[in-house]
TrEMBL record:
<feature type="transmembrane region" description="Helical">
    <location>
        <begin position="224"/>
        <end position="246"/>
    </location>
</feature>
<feature type="domain" description="Neurotransmitter-gated ion-channel ligand-binding">
    <location>
        <begin position="12"/>
        <end position="222"/>
    </location>
</feature>
<keyword id="KW-0472">Membrane</keyword>
<dbReference type="InterPro" id="IPR002394">
    <property type="entry name" value="Nicotinic_acetylcholine_rcpt"/>
</dbReference>
<keyword id="KW-1003">Cell membrane</keyword>
<dbReference type="InterPro" id="IPR036734">
    <property type="entry name" value="Neur_chan_lig-bd_sf"/>
</dbReference>
<keyword id="KW-0812">Transmembrane</keyword>
<keyword id="KW-0407">Ion channel</keyword>
<dbReference type="InterPro" id="IPR006202">
    <property type="entry name" value="Neur_chan_lig-bd"/>
</dbReference>
<dbReference type="GO" id="GO:0004888">
    <property type="term" value="F:transmembrane signaling receptor activity"/>
</dbReference>
<keyword id="KW-0813">Transport</keyword>
<protein>
    <recommendedName>
        <fullName>Neurotransmitter-gated ion-channel ligand-binding domain-containing protein</fullName>
    </recommendedName>
</protein>
<keyword id="KW-0406">Ion transport</keyword>
<dbReference type="GO" id="GO:0022848">
    <property type="term" value="F:acetylcholine-gated monoatomic cation-selective channel activity"/>
</dbReference>
<keyword id="KW-1133">Transmembrane helix</keyword>
<dbReference type="Pfam" id="PF02931">
    <property type="entry name" value="Neur_chan_LBD"/>
</dbReference>
<keyword id="KW-0675">Receptor</keyword>
Length: 247
């Protein structure tokens, strides 16, 4: 019976929140009641795995989770009115979400957000919203081969809002990318990771836009090259010599 009451309370809460949201605002409008105030979005990627480093195409493919946390002033309620319920889940396409994109992307970058799990938001009673979609990013990276096979490469991921100015959306991204769940790569190792916030003025617009740059420093593992390239070549050369020695 208690579980049924909780389900009914959550259903009523979701219906009330979405109805209020559609009446007072729209999914494209910023979730603030004072238009002069910016929406502050806490943003931090969590690097999970390096999928590929294409030196010919100058591309880095990396699997990561994007963490977005912001406050929506239209998604608040009193938990005592809904059986003590202090959080719920909503579909991302029903409410406002920050349009943070990867500026130096070589593909759409957001197609994996369309899945069922990526389209869910966790909403708390005080209006705090959490969104953590999973994405495979493909970014431009200037890869040099002058020091091959003992080379180090620096790649950047530049994120920012596509349409909202700095006075409309502020990025709170002071922490470097999370590496706690990073899976080691067979050929490359991560030896550095940093973050830099800045404001940029583009030719298209008069206003300033906020963006954040995540730098990832990679170093090639010489042991990988020795095991899979040099060692087979040496063995093949010895086999050729043996063929001449047999007669």
């Amino acid at each position: 019976l208690l579980v049924s009451q909780q389900i009914a309370s959550e259903g009523e809460l979701v219906h009330t929140l979405l109805a209020r949201y559609q009446n007072e605002t729209a999914s494209l409008a910023r979730p603030v009641k004072n238009a002069a105030e910016p929406v502050i979005v806490r943003f931090r990627p969590s690097f999970r795995n390096i999928m590929d480093i294409d030196e010919k195409k100058q591309e880095l493919s990396i699997y990561l989770w994007r963490t977005h946390i912001w406050k929506d002033e239209y998604l608040t309620w009193n938990p005592s009115d809904y059986g003590g319920l202090n959080r719920t889940r909503l579909n991302a396409n029903k409410v406002w979400t920050p349009d943070i994109v990867l500026f130096n992307s070589v593909n759409a970058g957001l197609e994996s957000k369309d899945g069922d799990s990526n389209g869910k938001l966790i909403v708390h009673h005080n209006g705090s919203v959490q969104w953590i979609p999973r994405v495979i990013e493909k970014s431009i990276c200037d890869l040099g081969a002058s020091d091959f096979p003992f080379d180090e490469q620096r790649c950047f991921l530049k994120y920012g809002s596509w349409s909202l100015r700095a006075n409309e959306l502020q990025l709170d991204a002071k922490e470097e990318a999370d590496m706690s769940e990073f899976h080691l790569h067979t050929e490359w190792e991560v030896i550095g990771n940093s973050v830099k916030n800045q404001q940029t003025k583009y030719e298209c617009c008069e206003e300033m836009f906020e963006d954040v740059n995540y730098e990832i420093i990679l170093r090639r593992k010489p042991a990988f090259l020795a095991r899979f390239m040099l060692l087979p070549a040496i063995l093949l050369s010895l086999m050729l010599l043996v063929i001449f020695w047999i007669p």
